[in-house]
Specification:
This protein is α+β, with helices and mostly antiparallel strands. It has helices at residues 2-18, 45-66, 70-76; strands spanning 80-88, 97-108, 113-122, 125-136, 141-148, 155-162, 167-175, 182-193, 196-204, 210-220. It has a domain at 70-220: Lipocalin, CATH 2.40.128. It has a 10-stranded antiparallel beta barrel.
C-alpha cells in the first residue's frame, strides 16, 4: 500500500510540475489567468447621452408627425354628403353643359386622412371618382391622390389653404391622352359657409392656356 501511495504522489507531483513553468506562468492545463481576458469596452457616457437625445428627439418628431392638427380639422369640415348642379365646359367659347353630382367624404385612421367619393353626370356621361386627402405635418402641405372611371391613371395633387378667402387651392397633373405626358390641373374649393362650398376645376391645354372645365356649388344634405 505504501508503494502505491508513493506512486500516486509521484504522478500528481509530476502533473503539477508540468502545468507550471519556471517563469511562474501557468501551462495549457492551468486555470485561465483573468488578467489575460479581453474585456468588452464600456460605452462612452457621451455617446450614450447622444443616443438618448436622438431617441427622444425622434420620438417627439414622430408624435408631431402623427398627430392630427388644425389643418386636418379644416378637411374634416368637408365631411358628410353634398349635392350640386354642375356646369361643364368643353372649350372657352362653348355653352355650359348641365350636370349633377354627389360628394361623400369621411375621416379615416383617426382623422389623419379623408376618403371622398364623387358620383354624377358630367358632359352627359356617368362619372365616378375616389380620392384620399390629408395634410403632411412634416412637409406642411396638403396632399391628395385621385382616380376615376374615365381613365387608368392616378392624379396627384398638392394644396394649400388661404384663411382669408377660406379657399383650398390644389394643383397637380393628369395624363394627357394625346401626348401621354402630363397636363396641369387645378382645383379650387371655396368654403362659403358650413353648409356650402364652391368647386371649380381648371386644366391647362396644349396651348399652355388655363381654362375652366367644371363649376358647381355643393350644399350639405341634412340628416333625416
Amino acid at each position: 500500500m505504501n508503494a502505491l501511495f508513493r506512486l500516486m504522489a509521484f504522478i500528481i507531483s509530476g502533473m503539477l510540475f508540468s502545468c507550471n513553468g519556471d517563469d511562474g506562468h501557468t501551462g495549457n492545463l492551468s486555470v485561465t489567468d483573468s488578467s489575460q481576458i479581453q474585456k468588452m469596452p464600456l460605452a462612452n457616457a457621451e455617446d450614450m447621452d447622444t443616443t438618448l437625445s436622438d431617441s427622444v428627439a425622434y420620438t417627439l418628431k414622430m408624435q408631431e408627425f402623427s398627430t392630427p392638427g388644425p389643418e386636418h380639422k379644416l378637411l374634416e369640415s368637408l365631411n358628410g354628403s353634398w349635392v350640386a348642379g354642375l356646369q361643364s365646359f368643353s372649350s372657352d367659347t362653348s355653352l355650359p353643359v348641365p350636370g349633377k353630382a354627389t360628394i361623400t367624404q369621411k375621416s379615416e385612421l383617426g382623422g389623419r386622412f379623408f376618403h371622398s367619393t364623387f358620383s354624377g353626370i358630367i358632359m352627359g356621361q356617368p362619372f365616378e371618382e375616389v380620392s384620399i386627402s390629408g395634410f403632411n405635418n412634416a412637409k406642411k402641405q396638403y396632399h391628395s391622390i385621385l382616380y376615376n372611371n374615365r381613365g387608368t391613371g392616378f392624379v396627384f395633387m398638392e394644396g394649400h389653404y388661404n384663411h382669408i378667402t377660406q379657399t383650398f387651392t390644389w394643383t397637380g397633373t393628369q395624363t394627357d391622352l394625346i401626348t401621354g405626358g402630363n397636363r396641369k390641373i387645378k382645383k379650387i374649393v371655396k368654403i362659403n359657409n358650413k353648409n356650402a362650398f364652391t368647386l371649380i376645376l381648371y386644366e391647362t391645354g396644349s396651348n399652355a392656356k388655363e381654362r375652366k372645365v367644371l363649376e358647381g356649388i355643393f350644399t350639405k344634405r341634412k340628416h333625416r
